[in-house]
Design a protein that fits this description.
This protein has 195 residues and is of the alpha/beta class. The protein has 7 helices and 5 strands; from the N terminus they run βαβαβααβααβα. The protein has a single domain, classed as Rossmann fold (3-Layer(aba) Sandwich). α2 runs parallel beside α4 and α3 packs across α6.
């Protein structure tokens, strides 16, 4: 029997996470979408809250093993690590991050980590200036921040590939036509229902 999937979509602001997760939610049967915003407390006191938040999330994922539901995430603890490494938070999350990464890697799911990026960085300007774009309080939208985030997510993706055995890392250029993007995603995750 085929395992259920955990699909995590990460990447810088403006890379297309919302578009891709909305597509997957609407085309991959039995899929629940979780759009996480993290914890707004960027002080050292926020670290305890963040740890509790992601510990609870991973326990929840564990409880959902083998019940025929796919879990789709628009950001998870990878974003927390990226923002901490970039200096947006007053604390280091790396110790917790490594623990959570190991827990995720040991879950009984088919696990996909999509690292979205734009091969043409000038595209960030167009995307970030769209009306109605959500904003993270401690990481203002601007092209420079998105490029820094993109580089950090690439670094994280490489580390995930090196440290894990069950997480399929997909570095995914989302600066293409939507039909091309969706077709490639369907092939990667074997979305037969939508092919």
């Amino acid at each position: 029997m085929k395992k259920e999937k955990i699909i995590i979509v990460e990447g810088p602001q403006g890379a297309g996470k919302t578009t891709i997760t909305d597509y997957l939610r609407n085309t991959l049967p039995y899929t629940n979408l979780y759009r996480l915003s993290g914890i707004s407390d960027s002080t050292k006191a926020g670290l305890e809250k963040v740890n509790k938040y992601y510990e609870t999330l991973l326990d929840y994922m564990k409880k959902l093993e083998n019940i025929n539901i796919n879990l789709l995430f628009d950001r998870t603890f990878f974003s927390e690590e990226a923002y901490c490494r970039l200096g947006f938070k007053e604390y280091s999350f790396t110790e917790s991050y490594n623990k959570f990464l190991e827990k995720l890697d040991n879950l009984d799911f088919e696990i996909y980590y999509f690292n979205l990026y734009l091969d043409d960085e000038s595209e960030f300007e167009k995307r970030l200036n769209r009306e109605g774009k959500a904003e993270i309080k401690y990481a203002k939208f601007n092209v420079e921040n998105s490029i820094k985030q993109q580089n950090m997510y690439k670094e994280l993706a490489k580390e995930i590939e090196e440290k894990t055995k069950n997480i399929k890392v997909i570095n995914f250029n989302s600066n293409r036509q939507l039909s091309e993007i969706f077709k490639e995603i369907d092939e990667i995750i074997d979305n037969k229902e939508h092919k």
